Every structure is written in C-alpha cells, then in structure tokens.
Amino acid sequence: MIEALITSKTRIRLLVKFFLNPAMSAYLRELSDEFGESTNGIRVELNRMAKAGILETRSEGKTLLYKAKVSHPLFNEISGLVAKYIGLDKIVEDVVRKLGKVDAAYITGDYAKGKDTGIVDLVLVGDVDKAYLLTLIEKVENLINRKIRFLILTREESENILNKPGAILIWRS
Asked: How many angstroms separate the CA atoms of 91 and 167, rounded?
C-alpha cells in the first residue's frame, strides 16, 4: 500500500524508524549500519525529510542527530499511516477482541504526549478478562521493551477520566 505512494524504500524505513517511536533519535552512520545501506542514500532522504520539517535535527559534537518533529502539523497523520503500514491497528484489534467485552482502549500518560519514558499507560474500558490480559502484557512487554501499566474502567468511570485531553483512543468497538 504505502510503497505505491512512497517509492523510496529508504524513506519508508526512516518513517517507520522515527514515527513508530517519536522519542527515539538516531544519527546517519547508525542508520546506515542498521539498514545495511550507504550513508549517501540515507543522507539524501534525511535531508529531504528535515527540509520538509517532519524531522528535527540537533548537533552533539560533530554528530547530527535526527528525530521526528512531534510539533509538525502532519505528525499524527504520518504516525497513523506508519502504524497501519506496520499493522499495529490490526494487532490491537485482534488482541482487544480476545479480552472480553471491551468498549475502548486508550493510551494515556507520557507516551500519549510523545515522550518515551519506557512506560506505556493503557486504559481499557469494559469487561476484561484480567488473567488473559496479564499473559498478553507479559508477552508484549518483551516485544516492545517497555513496561505496560494498565487500568480497567467501566463506561461510567471512563466518562469522568477520559473526556480530558491527553488520552489517545487506539481502539473502539
């Protein structure tokens, strides 16, 4: 799907790298080693993305670090497109359906603000199979290398808490 819109495989890999985890930063040679590509091809794409304003740069000595620009007006749209490309939306949907009668799932806290502190705050609304949830959380924590804190709320409880800014809806029945 995305390959039809973005023909550069390097650009796709950079979008995935920076927009799946917006708190992460990387430098040119590190990306070259990771992707197994020449620094020239990666540099061209990084420069294009920085010029477009979707990446921000900062110098650390002689090294230039790149990072997703969270304040860019298209940041949420690009992140959503990358998540769909990777299939996160499908994974979340499949997992949530197996948890019981879940009405909605939200990400809150620092991660919802674009800060990667290593802890993902997950709020589930509905009647959840807690034993199955604990098993899933253990598996997912090992995959994403982050701690997941969860909270299960009833619909009534969620109305008071989740109507405030700072909660990102990731799934709804």
From this structure: 20
